[in-house]
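anyone seen this seq b4? input:
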Amino acid sequence: MKSIETVGILGLGKMGCPLAGHLVAKGFKVIGYDPLAQAREKAMARGARGAASAREVAQASDLVIVVVGFDSEVEEVVFGKEGVLEGARPGLVVALGSTVAPRYSKRVAERLAQRDIVLLDIPLARGEAAAVAGKLLVYGAGDHAAFERCKPVFSAFASDIFHLGPAGAGQVAKMVNNLILWACIAVNDEGLRLGQALGVDPERLCQALRHGSAQNWAMDTQAERSGMPWAEKDMSIVLQEADAARLSLPLAGTVREAIKGLKIRLGLGMPGIPEHF
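predicted toks r here
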């Protein structure tokens, strides 16, 4: 089976641009598209070739990595008028690095399979700093042979790569990861506010807690300072998937409201929720 030589990237923002740089550094040819000219220019400064559309990216690539924000954007770059399907040839692999609902990922895989295009789940975890450092975590899923073929590409920007099952399984893992992340952020906030109300400085308390059983990744990285832009989207995915599975997750509902309240208190914006479930 032919190895991957040219990698396309759709979405050249905080995640896609560092990915492009790592891939170029590892010797891959990279072509990318983003509707923002400034984003394309930044990727081109790292050695990628800019494209005018997702269609053009697909025409030139052996593997296309999608790292846009929402289901609706995935729909546009893959199935839209100038999308991947318009330029794809049979055998193309599309790796979905975006965080979307597992049910939506499965449907995308089914639709692409009708055109002999393989979809892999590769939702990326650990955030922007890990993307810059080339130490992302990949929750992979989909056709195992195709995944192994693409693994050298993923290794260019990820330090930990897992294959969890058929298409959709990677999105399930990212969904569960995010549920636990937001739960930790919510309880960290409540605990530190309680400590402050009882007279203990939150920064000093946090330093001490990191050495005990309360330690967690969100506390170590002070993840709430990222602005938590995807919290509402992530929790909507969790609760709608739970509804579809006829599963009661009362803590998940509480986490959604707790995170919403925290963002309101911090004056942070509220992005939309995913579409195309």
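Confidence is low (pLDDT under 50) at residues 273-277. The chain has two domains: 6-166, 171-266. kinda curious what u guys think
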